[in-house]
Design brief:
By secondary structure, this protein is an alpha+beta fold. Helix content is 56%, strand content 19%.
Length: 466
């Protein structure tokens, strides 16, 4: 059963209980009040008759039963006795008038000269009567006076009220059912939207949102649900992006392995199966050696990246300027053979670094700058100290990087110039490693480049000052 139907049934049940109990209590109270009023009126009328008989008896003592009968006939002529009147003694009935008198109950055992007895009975004519019984003395003999008063109007009024109440009850229950269902429909409609949003997201429509604007608890649940859906969508998008990068990495890695392995196997098979000249054998061995070294460099780069991502490391106090100066001094003669000038400008100071990875960062950045210089040029390394670490810049005046490639150059195996990079032994992993080293130091790496003018790489390291 739907929640709106449950709410409707609950409203109907509560309405029936409270309205039924209240209406029944009201009808019962009205009936009781009217009955008491009828009893009061009947008592006054009966007392008037009884007092009249007692007064006449005191003023003129009766000697004959006919005297009493005569008085009663005079009172009956004035309709003062109600529906029926009966006088009897131990010897029998002395006077009786009214057909209802035949249905009087014997109340003589419940009364005395100072107390009246009262009861209600119904006659065959389906009317209700109030019977009053009292006694008085005539000489030494006790006489009993019975009177009946028609109180059917009280019962008829109650019956009419009950019938009217039943009609009103049915109408109100029907109206309550309709209004309760409409109210429950509007109150639960946001829940239906929330349920639909859950089904849509479960079916893969991660952009769907419930967007319920109410300020009640349902609205709060909707906002929390939409927030959860946003986080879920972001997580799924990140997971999908990671899977795409992983698939791309596997494809690129397979390609990088396949190309040198094919050459190595081909030349090795040529050396194994055929007799070559000394010159051809030397060329084949040289190619196998160069491709083997390229595979070695590839494996070492991948190992460095794996270590940077998974191995725990500790930042220690180090002078970044000394590391840079020492490395530049070591590489300067090597680069000078290619007409490349390597200089540095470093601020003194200490900061928290992993010296091994910091050195690898500098080597990879300088190596990438060297590859951009096709016919000599300039590479400058700069160091600026900051409050929470340092900033390293590597600038060259080489060929530059296209703007479309700047967003991808830290991806594994990505090359701006694939043919030239492979010829120089590159695998597209150097900047990926640099990006991971920057992340290890809670920093970032960014690139500014103009084609034909050069490139500036800025690495912000936030390992802290020492």
């Amino acid at each position: 059963m739907k929640f709106r139907l449950k709410a409707t049934c609950c409203m109907i049940i509560l309405m029936a209980l409270f309205f039924g109990a209240g209406g029944s209590a009201l009808i019962s109270t009205t009936f009781y009040t009217s009955l008491q009023q009828e009893k009061k009126t009947a008592h006054e009328s009966y007392r008037m008759i009884l007092n009249t008989l007692q007064i006449v008896n005191h003023m003129d003592e009766w000697t004959d039963e006919k005297d009493i009968t005569k008085i009663l006939e005079q009172l009956s002529a004035q309709d003062a006795f109600g529906a029926a009147l009966q006088l009897h003694s131990e010897s029998g009935i002395l006077y009786s008038k009214g057909a209802v008198a035949a249905h009087f109950k014997d109340l003589s055992g419940q009364i005395d000269t100072s107390h009246l007895a009262c009861t209600i009975f119904s006659a065959p004519d389906t009317c209700y009567y109030l019977q009053l019984s009292g006694s008085f003395f005539v000489g030494k003999e006790v006489y009993y006076l019975e009177a009946a008063y028609n109180i059917s109007s009280v019962y008829e009024s109650r019956t009419q009220q009950q019938e009217l109440f039943q009609q009103i009850f049915i109408i109100l229950i029907a109206a309550c059912a309709c209004l309760s269902y409409i109210l429950a429909f509007f109150l639960t409609r946001p829940l239906a939207r929330l349920s639909k949003a859950s089904r849509e997201i479960a079916c893969g429509n991660y952009d769907y949102r419930s967007r319920i604007k109410s300020n009640d608890e349902v609205g709060a649940v909707s906002r929390d649900f939409d927030l959860m859906a946003d986080h879920l969508q972001n997580s799924i998008e990140q997971l999908q992006d990671a899977m795409e990068r992983q698939n791309q990495f596997i494809g690129n890695f397979t390609h990088e392995l396949k190309t040198p392995m094919t050459s190595i196997i081909g030349y090795a098979d040529l050396l194994r199966s055929q007799t070559l000249s000394k010159e051809d054998e030397a060329d084949a061995a040289k190619y196998i050696f160069s491709e083997g070294k390229r595979l070695e460099r590839l494996s070492l780069k991948l190992l460095d990246i794996f270590v940077s991502e998974h191995e725990s490391f500790t930042l220690t106090k180090a002078c970044a300027a000394d590391i840079i100066t020492s490395l530049v001094a070591h590489l300067k003669p090597v680069l000078a053979k290619e007409q490349i000038t390597l200089t540095c400008d470093c601020e003194p100071g200490f900061c928290m670094l992993d010296t091994d990875f910091f050195g690898s960062l500098l080597v990879n950045l300088i190596e990438n700058a060297r590859k951009a210089l096709t016919s000599g040029g300039m590479i400058k390394v700069g160091l600026t100290m900051t409050d929470n670490g340092c900033i390293v810049t590597v600038t060259d005046n080489g060929s530059g990087i296209p703007q479309s490639a700047l967003a991808h150059i830290t991806e594994a195996f990505y090359r701006v110039d694939k043919s030239r990079s492979r010829a120089e032994g590159g695998a597209g992993l150097g900047l990926t490693l640099c990006s991971e080293i920057a992340r290890m130091h809670h920093g970032s790496i960014s690139f500014e480049s103009t084609q034909g003018c050069g490139t500036t790489v800025t690495v912000v390291l936030k390992g802290g000052r020492a």
